[in-house]
Amino acid sequence: EGGKIGLKSAKVAFVKLLDYITGGNNLNATINMTTPVLTRLKMAENEYDIEFALLSFYIPQYYQGNPPEPSSDDVKLEWIDGGILYSRAMGGGMPSRGEYRKQFDILWDNLEEAEIEDLGEEPIILDY
What we know:
This protein is an alpha+beta fold. It has helices at residues 2-21, 61-64, 97-113; strands at residues 37-43, 50-56, 124-127. The radius of gyration is 16 Å and the shape is globular.
């Protein structure tokens, strides 16, 4: 199922990023983990299942000018330009796929009612 594949890919990605910040880089540097963790979701055509998830950690300010290079080819350094994010707060641990979908739908409906356009194509989850 797409949702299970997406969740599995998010777990695998988290472990790879954790390796990077715990010394899996050209400096063997331990990098403090920052929040939030960004999870960008690639949704399936049915707009319910998740095809895959891309996870990102922020690099602390100390390393932003010259971050250590990842040792793994599976970890990439990426600059994300600033922008506007619209959010909906959720609490209570790890929500189910259905709860995520429900909350995305509520947020989307609220944005449409406010006539906000150009929302991009991929949902982003910010985990703290």
